[in-house]
Task: structure prediction
Amino acid sequence: MEDVTIRENIKAVEKTIAVTCREVGRDVQEVTLIAVSKTKPVEMLQEAYAYGCRDFGENKVQELIEKFEEMPKDIRWHMIGHLQRNKVKYIVDKVYLIHSVDSLRLAEEISKEAVKKDVCVKILVEVNVANEETKFGTTCDEVKQLVYDIAKLPNIRVKGLMTIAPFVENAEENRPIFSKLRKIAVDIMKENIDNIDMEILSMGMTGDYTVAISEGATCVRVGTGIFGLRQYMS
Ligand SMILES: *Cc1c(COP(=O)(O)O)cnc(C)c1O
Result:
């Protein structure tokens, strides 16, 4: 029963993405759906994989590594949660993209471990656009300088920006947040910094991804909308 639901859910989300793209005149190919599978068992990820999902998002290093070992190797793993420097070494050669880089110290650690393992790690800079105290991310004022600093490091590539918008009843309330992130990206692009591009805008979750797409999201991170509500035990 569960499996059918996951497939139906993904289908519905894909359809909504397609409809939204059509409405706002975007090519649906520009938007990647990331299935956020945190806290969910591997069996559920396998259902999503069987349907065709190849992009999965996790927010804990340990969990990502376990699932990486168990799941097929053609999956693109997205690290979307806060990353501690001492855990960077476990994932640099496993992740496709780290969405949550918010300090030079973290970027330096990623660069150092990437050099050791002879890989190049793609990252996004996380911006706390709404300035929420409870959230990680650099500020709108500091992001450009941070991008300049990261650009000088070896084996790490900034591919764009990420934000987590506040939880709101009406997704439209988050439109200014998404539009601000996009403006910052455009602004940074104009600087033509070596090793930097702004092709990825990771924004939008289950509650607000259609608004994010209409404001230019190229990655939407959908958990609940695919796998159902999460139960946290501890
Ligand atoms: C959990 C999580 C999501 C998915 O949230 P849903 O509301 O379940 O879609 C997206 N992005 C990040 C960074 C998350 O931690």
Observations:
- Residues 167 and 207 are 8 Å apart (CA to CA).
